[in-house]
Amino acid sequence: MAHRLQIRLLTWDVKDTLIRLRHPLGEEYATKARAHGLEVEPSALEQGFRQAYRAQSHSFPNYGLSQGLTSRQWWLDVVLQTFHLAGVQDAQAVTPIAEQLYDDFSRPCTWQVLDGAEDTLRECHSRGLRLSVISNFDQRLEGILGGLGLREHFDFVLTSEAAGWPKPDPRIFQEALRLAHMEPVVTAHVGDNYLCDYQGPRAVGMHSFLVVDPQALDPVVRDSVPKEHILPSLAHLLPALDLPRGLESRALRPVREVAGP
Questions:
Q1: Can you give the pTM of this predicted structure?
Q2: What is the Cα 23 distance to its own chain's centre?
């Protein structure tokens, strides 16, 4: 008779897995700019942010902590560069906007809990599972989760800023296992990013699940991940934990690496 996976700890990604921005980022940036007398198209800000974030992450990984930056300064620089790429050349005019955006994104009201998140977390608790967070977020995450009423569900919240390593670095997952006093074989990670939330935990022997629309995945990724580990919504998580042991070895096989976003 087949038995379900013996998972005792679930670690969670946060952004776009449990919570998301209440309004699109470009709109948030444009609204704050308008309040300071600047008119900038949300689409230009959205595109500029993607470019600025990618470049900043490449030049100063994990908020530039090892290079002498603070996470706050890291984000202020991203916002300044975002507006520059969107056509605003006056950095002095953008500085107060960047400061306000950093503070606003610290507030729970800027975020919203995704449908099914609270119910799923409660159901996990009722099953006797321990829960914790592993997130590439900064020091603001504790306050955001507390304000949204989610912090109480987790034993601990481990951010990449606190750990010193971002996902998919195996050391952040190993640190979470150390904090939880758990072996990887009884631990599963839940998230929405293939490299950070699927491959990363698998590299240290954990199980992992992707919460994502299967049709939104790159076909190479979709074909590489066992369909039992692709969850169209959080409501599919607990049934997936009943995966028979016979599928366990297939689920933990290494998958082909694909190019990042």
A1: 0.90
A2: 17
